Amino acid sequence: MSVSLSELKIGEKAIIIDVNIDEIPLKLLEMGCLPGNEVALVQIAPLGDPYYFNINDSHVAIRKEIAHEVTVVLENSLNVDAK
């Protein structure tokens, strides 16, 4: 099941499957926000924006509106599909 990066809960891990290149800053792409990379939500700021992610061992703060442009598949759903 695919969801946007902004829909992850704290502690959830996922794999990036698609990125809206027109909306994502180049710096995020350079830091590893690319399809195939693992991402985990570490923390959400007190007012709900930005989100703090661990993407391929890089710690990145991403605004909610940008996180919505990244599509991921949850790791636990990958394990269910493999069975």
The H-and-E topology, N to C, reads as EEHEEEHEH
Class by helix and strand content? alpha+beta
Gyration radius, in Å = 12 Å
The CATH top-level class label = Mainly Beta
Q: Helix amount, in percent?
A: 10-25%
Mean pLDDT: 87
The largest pleated sheet is described as: 6 strands, antiparallel
Q: Number of DSSP helices?
A: 3
CATH architecture verdict: Roll
Count of extended strands: 6
The proportion of residues in beta strands is 35-45%
GO molecular function: transition metal ion binding
Keywords: Iron
Protein name: Ferrous iron transport protein A
Pfam families: FeoA
Task: Report on this structure.
It contains three helices and six strands; from the N terminus they run E-E-H-E-E-E-H-E-H. By secondary structure, the protein is α+β, with helices and mostly antiparallel strands. It has a single domain (2-82), classed as SH3 type barrels (Roll), CATH 2.30.30.90. A hairpin with a 6-residue loop joins strand 3 and strand 4 (51-55). The radius of gyration is 12 Å and the shape is globular.
Topology (SSEs and partners):
Blueprint: E1 2-4, E2 13-19, H1 26-30, E3 38-44, E4 51-55, E5 58-62, H2 64-67, E6 70-74, H3 75-82
Antiparallel strand pairs: 1-6, 2-3, 2-6, 3-4, 4-5
What can be said about this structure in brief?
The protein has helices at 26-30, 64-67, 75-82, and strands at residues 2-4, 13-19, 38-44, 51-55, 58-62, 70-74.
